Structures are given as C-alpha cells and as structure tokens.
Amino acid sequence: MIRKLLPLAHLGMGLMVMGFVSCTKSKNVNEKSLHITVQSRIKGMDPINTGDTYSSTEVARVYEGLLQYHYLKRPYELEPNLAESMPEVSDDGLTYTFKLKKGVMFHDNKCFEGGKGRELTAEDVVFSIMRLADPRNNAIGWWILDGKVVGLNEWRDEQKKLNKTNYSAKVEGLKAVDKYTVQFKLTEEFPQFLYALPMSYTMIVAKEAVDFYGEEFLNNPVGTGPFMTDTFTQSTKIVYKKNPKYRKEVYPSEGMPEDKEKGLLDDAGKTLPLAEKIVVHIQPESQPRWLAFEKGKTDFLTIPKDNFQSVVTPGKTITDAYAKKGIELQINPDLDVTYISFNHENELFKNNVKLKQAMSLAYNNVRANELFYNNRGILAQTPIPPGIQGYDKNYVNPYMAYDLEKAKKLLAEAGYPKGKGLPVITYDTASSTVQRQMGEYFKKQMAEIGINVDVVTNTWPQLTEKVHKRKTMTYGMAWLGDYPDAENFLQLLYGPNSSPGPNGSNFNDPGFNKLFKKATKMQPSPERAKLYMEMAQKYSEKVPWILGVHRTSFVVKHGWLKNYKFSTFNYGNSKYFDVDLEVKKKNIEKL
Amino acid sequence: MSATWSYILRRALYLIPVLLGVCFLIFVLFNVVAGDPAALLLGKHASASQIEEVREQLGLNQPLYMQYFDVVKSAFTFDFGRSWATKQQISSMIAQGAIPSLAVTLPGFFLATVVSILLSVVVAYYRGKGIDLFIRILTIGMMSISSLVYIMVFQWLFAFKLGLFEISGFEFGFPEVMPYISLPIIIWVVLSLGPDVRFYRTLILDEMYQDYVRTARAKGLSEKAILLKHVLRNAMIPILTYTVVQLPFLLLGSILLESFFSIPGLGNMVINALNSSDFPVLKAITVLSAVAYIVFTLVQDVLYTIVDPRVKLN
Fold first, then answer.
1. How many CB pairs under 8 A join A and B?
2. What are residue A457's phi and psi, to 5 degrees?
3. A161 pLDDT exceeds 80?
4. d(CA A206, CA B304)
5. What is the pLDDT of residues B127-140, one digit of tens each?
6. Among A206, A251, B159, B269, which residue's beta carbon has the most beta carbons within 10 A?
7. What's residue A472's pLDDT?
C-alpha cells in the first residue's frame, strides 16, 4: 500500500517545489496599473444594491452619476459629472433641472445592437431612478429618494399591484424633458437631494443591459465610466481596463493651497483616466494586507491597528525606516462618529437626563481613545464631525469631561445614590475582539460610580435585530456619513426616524424634532450652519448618547502612486490616480 | 454482487429521512436563533415599511409549514435559488468557490495523510526508543501552538521575508496557481501532522499487540515485513474510517487559510452567510454537506470490502 502511494507523494512534493521556484518579485513595473486592496468580498455590481462602501467603490469605477465630489477641494464640494453643469433650481426650491453632457457613450457590450455602446440620454436617467424605486428590486438605496420625488412613491405602490413593473408609466416629478434634459420635482424643499446624485445608488444604467442580462445584471456591469470589466465573479481579484472610448474629461486645475506643493496639481488638464488598468486585491486579513503593501504589491493602504506603532512616530509623522523606502503618510479626518447609545424607550432612560449625564461623566473618553484608536481619534463633543457645517472646534461638551465626583453627585440626584436601587444595565455589542474589549471598558468605567453593567455580545444579525425591536438598554455603534451634511448625523436623533429607522436611540424630543425639520428645509447658508451648531450642542447636553470619537484615517502610500488624495467619498476617484513607472522601478528595489 | 447493490440502494434511500431531518433542524434553528434577514439586507437606513416589503418578497410572511415545505423542496431538487444577501446564484457561488477550496485542501489532506502514516509507521517501529519519544514530544509541541501562529509566522517568514511564495492571492490555471497555494498547503500539512501522527501511531501500536503479530514473529518474519504487510493492512480499517469522513468537509475549505491567503473558496461563504442571516446559502451548505457525508460513508463501506475481504455488504 505504502509503496503504491509513494510515487504520488513524490508528485505532490514536486508540485510544491515548483512553488518555491517561481519568483515573487513584482513583475508589472512596465505597465501603468494600479494595485488597490479591499477588505471585503464584493457582493455584486448592481448600483442600486451597493449597501456597503466596498461595493460602492467598485461600482463607481464602471458607472457614473449626474454629479460627483470635486477631487481636491475641501470641505467637500459637488460638481457635475454626467451633467453638463450644476442644476437650475426653481425659486421655490422644488424643481431641479439638469442638462446632460452630449456624446457620453455606454461601454461597448453585446447587449447593444451591433455590440457598440450607444449615447446616454435623459431617458436613461429616468429609467435608472425608476429602477431604484421598483418594488421588485427592493433596492438597498431606496431610502435616499423615499418620499422625496413627486409621484415616485405612488408609482412604486402602483407597481406592487401589477405582475410586471411598468417603466413606461409617467412619474410627475421625474421627467425627460428632451434628449439631454432631465427634471426632478421634489415633494418638499430638501437641499440634501443633490447629495443623492454622486452616490452609487443613482448611477446611470442602460435599459438594454438590464433587460439582456436579467438576474445576472449584477455580474455584467455596463456603464459609462472610465474603466470597464468583463463578467464579474465574486473572486478575490477584480481586473478593470481603461475604457478606450471614455469622453474627454480632464484632471482638475484647482484645489486647496497645499495641493500645489504636494504635487497634486501637476497633472492639471491631462486627459482622464491616467492609469491603464486597475487590479483590485481582496484581502480580508490585516497581516497579508500590510505585507503585500510593504512588498510593493499594492499602492496604498489604511494602516492596520497592529502596524501603527512601527509606521507612525508619536509626533504623527512616518518613521525613518519607512520614509527611506519611499513610503509617504497621509492623515485625514473621517466623516464619522462612534457612540454608546441609550434606548430612550426604556423607562430607566426615558425621562432621567441626570442618570445619562452621570454615566457620560464617568466615562473616560481620553483613555478609550488611547486604548482603541491609537490616540488618533478626535474626541466627539456633538454628533457632527469636523469638516462639515455645524462643527465647532471651540465647543466643549460639559458632560464629555471625565469627572467622577460630579458623576456621583448627578447619580444621587437622579435617585440612585452610589448606584443603589439601579438595576443591572445591559450593554449590547457585536462580537469582535475590540468591540468586546470596549464593552468591558464601559463596564469597568461604570463600576467606578457603582453602576453594574452586563456586557452582552451578539452576532451582527442579533445586534441589529435587538436595536430594531428596541430591546436593548445601551449599545455601542458607529455612524459613517453618507454625505457631507450635518443633517445626515442629526437625523440619528430625529424622533420619526426611531427604530427600525436609523435613530436606534429612540430619542424623541419635540423641540429637537421641530428644529430638525426647519433646518433640513434650509439651503446651505451661515444661518443653517448656526442652527445645526446650536441644536447639536443643546441636545448633546441632554446626552442621548455617550459620545466617542471622530476617527482619523492614516493612509500610507508608495511614492510612485501619483495624485492620491484621501476622500471619505472616494467613488470614481481612481480615474485621477497615476503610476510613475520610473519611481516604481527604483523604489521597488528597496522593498 | 447483487447483495452489494441492494445494500448501496438501501443506503441511498436513507438519504430521504436524513434530509428531512436536516431540513427540519436547520429550519427550526434558523427561525429561533437568526436575526431578521430583511432588516439586515436593508442596512442602516431600513424603514419599517420596506422591511415589511422585503419580508413579503423573501416569503417570510408565509405560514411556517409553507416555508418548511420550500426548504424540503430545494433540498430534494438541489435548486437553492439566489442568495438573499448577495443576490448571486447559489449554485454558481458554490461551483466558483469549490475549486479554489479543493486546490488547497485536497493536496493538503493527501500529503498530510501520507506523511503522517509514514511517520507513524516509523515511530511504531522504533516504539519506546529515542526517535519515538522525540516525535511524540514534537507532535505535542506542535499541537499546543494555535493555528493562527503558524499561518502568521509562515506567511511572514516564507512569503514576505524569504520571498519564496506569493503573500496572498489566487490564479486559476496550472502552474500559475502554485506560488499561491503551496504555502497554504504546507501549513495545512504542518497543522495536521501533530494530531494525525499521534492518532495513527496509537492505531498501529494497538495492532502490534495482537495475537497474529506474535504468530508472525514466531514464524520468524522480519519486524519490517510484519509492520508493512500485516499490521498496516489491518490498521487500514480504522484509518479509512478516520480519513474518509473528513473528505466531504474538504469542500468547505479552511476559513482561516482562505482569508489569510485571499483564496476565493467556500470557507468564508458560510461565515458571511451566518453574519447576514442568509438562509438560502446556509441551507444549501447544510444540505450538501449532509448528502456528501452520506455518500462518503457509503464509499467508506465499499472501501472496507476492498481492504478487508471478510467484510461483506449486506
């Protein structure tokens, strides 16, 4: 028996040796290809169902929306993409009219007659938006327009009664006025509507492709974007090539004052896209992600937590060892906030502001920032993160200080001196190691003023369900902004958005609700900024949440990657990236 | 022969009650433990009305017996439909993932088995001597280290520092795939050696003290001949029992190896499905594993008759 098996064993060993022989040095130093790493498998390439940032980023390499964010300007600013110019808005703020660029072509694909992509028209915009609203698609992105466009919800309800969706029906608020003009009519004033248009959900698809590929449309992306890919498979690598027929778009010539000196304006006026190819590597674990970057196999990377100290000095610059290899560091605030939420449906927290204030005062956020974020978070004082209107860098929330004496006093005033009479408070969290550690930390902090906390770990589905069904007492959460407007953060405390809506705290304060309603109807202005600021500060002092931090992203990139600028909304940004092959050839030797 | 075939047929028919039971179990578990899939699908902006619509579309508002019937139907037709979370066709998800998973687990399993059996024959031969003690201590040592440590250290040392293999990734096609899968295969073998060698050593030593071995020795056979011709042959039955039942699970891949080496296999599929309450995928994996388990135990029975002619299937 053994003798019979031996030749096979030899074969097996032989195959392995072949593995050794192959050279693993990066081979593609003669091709302008970008190597990008992604942490999670991509579900599919249908714009309306890109519920996570990873899929949105991939979809946006192939598809485009009417608008996009200016690549270099901060704070984030909208600019036209498929639209020729910013829309004309009627005086009542309800009607938005867009002129489309002429000569925008869909990718060549067999779904079109003769395999040649045709020109994009206003009808495509109407179709794509109706597709987002189609009840049969149950699109993840429907919330962005739910109740916002005149007649669209009615059309949606109508379709539920039919056997097949009727796309030829007219929707009053969504009109192709002529071949290149499309008009939206809103149900009420909502300036944030424009932020829906660079999002992947509203990117423009071709009806021919949707009909031709049917249920397999999600694996056959046909857009107008700068890059294209053949059939998509849920593998660990996605390869895009440049769209040879991409319309004439050029690299921006304006940016922030520091952009010029960083070389981010060197390519101003050059035709996009600058790279020939994109290879996306899906690497769920942080070690291989880091090692692959260090070897030069990927171009840039958010520094994994465990590598932080070897790469970044206490002064927040890059360490010499990495600087010598031609690696550069970029530090940017992310548009988000972390928090511990109270459930205001729970009798304990419903009307007891002092109890919540006491708990907030007993929570040492400075230490939490050191423990869990390498001290790189910005301590949150209100839900609004820096970089958008409504953030006030001078404001200090009196209940975000760490003050045990004051906490004990407030706890007594709340009716629970030294925690007496207070039931055990549960803290629900997801089950990852760091999240459990955060729970233990919260428990320890509350114990200092005599409050007993029981940490309950959940799978993500269990946690979501508990929050939706209002079954938690407190729970840990983070919110990443969908668009750069304080409305997207303040809506987390708006009463009508209570669970299962995004307001999982079920905070419902008539005063706040009234101000929120008023603010959302205001056009961007200094008055609106002031109102955002005031409501954020006033109601944060009622402690609907124990605030955490606004996280900061630390990105390292190789010197050969040109024009990289971090953005929270990075949809479509790969068209601006370039590879300096001379630098790459030189630097890769040092790695 | 006809007795054999009727045995195989009878065993195949067992599939029916087993599948019904598996369907029942997974259905009950899913309804008791899992979170609401509709809410998870819609993410952070889910509204009550849209959640209700999705529940309706997924068939979650149907009476429970109807839902159970659907589960049974897909188990017997093998038509699992589309994943709730990714909307991908489940049959193609499995087909695309099975090859990369097997590319690592099959050679890994095969090599690990061959090497462990060889090693255990050696230690059985030298039982009680220095080499036996050394290998026993070594295997215990190897088993006490977490698999994560092997993966991280080997990846860092052999792929990153020494550059012998690719750090992570996968290519379809041979030999392009070799630099990507060699290291995971080696790690698989290393991880299996500890428990396997110890197990096979015990099996072989058990045989060494049987009467027939003493008879063989009395007849003057060499120790080598006894070990290779008689003992190993007799140890084959428990070895087969141990190895064949592991085969169906090779299909599911290794979750850790796949995520560290970016191998697009099935390992992560189960985890992702659990994390998104993706019932159709969980159902497909459970049903397929159950079927594979039954099929492989049948194969095992047939193999018994080959290694031991005294065993008859009837």
1. 187
2. -95, 145
3. yes
4. 60
5. 889 999 999 999 99
6. B269
7. 95
Residue in chain B lying closest to A281 (CA): B169
Q: Where are the alpha helices (DSSP H) in A183-328?
A: 207-213, 257-261, 286-294, 308-311, 320-323
Print burial letters for A156-165: b (CB count within 10 Å at least 16), e (below 16).
beebeeeeeb
Hey, which residues 24-83 in chain B have their CB within 8 Å of chain A?
34-37, 39-48, 50-51, 53-54, 57, 82
- When mean pLDDT is compared across A157-166, A330-339, A411-420, B291-300, the lowest value belongs to B291-300
Per the CB < 8 A criterion, the answer to whether A278 and A61 are in contact is yes
Give the separation between CA A469 and CA A500, rounded to whole angstroms. 7
- Which pTM was predicted? 0.89
Strand (E) or helix (H) holding A175: strand A174-178
Residues of A in contact with B57 (CB under 8 A): 136, 138
- Tokens for B152, please give them: 């991280």
Quickly list DSSP for A362-416.
T--HHHHHHHHHTT-SEEPSSSPPTTSTT--TT---GGGS--HHHHHHHHHHTT-
How many other C-beta atoms can be found within 10 angstroms of the C-beta atom of residue A386? 15
- In our burial notation (b when 16+ CB lie closer than 10 A, e otherwise), range B30-63 reads beeebbbbbbbbbebbbbeebbebbbebbebeee
Write down the ipTM of this complex. Answer: 0.89
Q: Give CA angle at A47 (A46, A53), nearest 5°.
A: 105
Quick one: average pLDDT of B225-244? 88
- Please, how many CA atoms are within 13 Å of residue A477, restricted to the half-sphere of its CB? 24
* Alpha carbon distance A125, A206 (integer Å): 9
Question: How do residues A192-215 score in pLDDT, each as one tens digit?
Answer: 999 999 999 999 999 999 999 999
Q: Is B86 part of the contact surface with chain A (CB cutoff 8 Å)?
A: yes
Choose from A4, A20, A192 for mutation: most chain B CBs within 10 A.
Answer: A20
List CB contacts of B159: < 8 A, sequence separation 6 or more: A24, A291, B165, B166, B167, B168, B183
Strand partners, A426: A454
Nearest-Cα distance to chain A for B129, in Å, is 23
Structure-token pair, residue A476:
């840990």
The predicted pLDDT at position A526 comes to: 92
Per-residue confidence band for B304, with pLDDT thresholds at 50, 70 and 90: confident
What pLDDT, on the 0 to 100 scale, is given for residue A5? 41
Is the CB of residue A25 less than 8 Å away from at least one CB of chain B?
yes
Three-class SS state of A569 = coil
Contacts with A468 from chain B: Cβ below 8 Å: 36, 39, 46, 51
Contact B277 A19 (CB under 8 A): no
- How far is the C-alpha of B111 from the C-alpha of B125, rounded, in Å? 21
Contacts of A285 in chain B (CB under 8 A): 259-260
SS3 category, A214: helix
Spell out the alpha helix ranges (H) of chain B.
Answer: 2-13, 15-33, 37-42, 48-58, 64-77, 90-125, 130-144, 147-154, 178-208, 211-218, 223-225, 232-244, 247-250, 255-260, 267-275, 279-307
Q: Which two tokens stand for residue A475?
A: 């729970």
Taking residues A120-134, report their average pLDDT.
Answer: 97
Residue B294 confidence (pLDDT): 86
